Amino acid sequence: MNKYCARLKDINSLEFAENKAKCRLTLIRRSMGKGHVRRFSYHTPSPPVSPRLQSVTGAVMQESGGEEVGAGLEPEVSEHQQLAMQQEERVLTEQIESLQKEKYLIALYLQ
Q1: How confident is the model at residue 110, as a pLDDT?
Q2: Which PANTHER family match (predicted)?
């Protein structure tokens, strides 16, 4: 019975680590995607704004601290940052797959 409880705790720990990795992965993917949204909204004309564009530009303005898009002097995401995020995305994906396999093997052991 103690081994069974220990395995369940192991599974819980793996699930916790997997959820943390998935949250981080989602954050990275959103960050990479927002770079594209910013560039897109930068080229849209301001006066005739549709409701859909208002929500996009509102989110972008909120992201940039309320400044107009393109008003800042620094670029949204540098090429170096983009490459670093892509590398972290790959590493996190591999970690998630590894955690899922380990969780599966522990579950098999319990049967």
Answers
A1: 84
A2: UNCONVENTIONAL MYOSIN-IXA (PTHR46184:SF3), UNCONVENTIONAL MYOSIN-IXB-LIKE PROTEIN (PTHR46184)
Q: Are 107 and 14 in contact (CB under 8 A)?
A: no
| Ordered alpha helix ranges (H), 1-111 | 2-42, 51-63, 79-110
Q: Is 72 helix (H, G, I), strand (E, B) or coil?
A: coil
Buried b (16+ CB within 10 A) or exposed e, 41-68: beeeeeeeeeeeeeebbeebeeebeeee
**88 alpha-carbon distance from chain centroid:** 10
Give the global pTM: 0.58
Q: How far apart are CA 14 and CA 9, in angstroms?
A: 9
Residue 76 exposed, middle or buried by CB count within 10 Å (0-12, 13-18, 19+): buried
- Indicate the residue type of 69: V
Cα distance between residue 51 and residue 103, in whole Å: 45
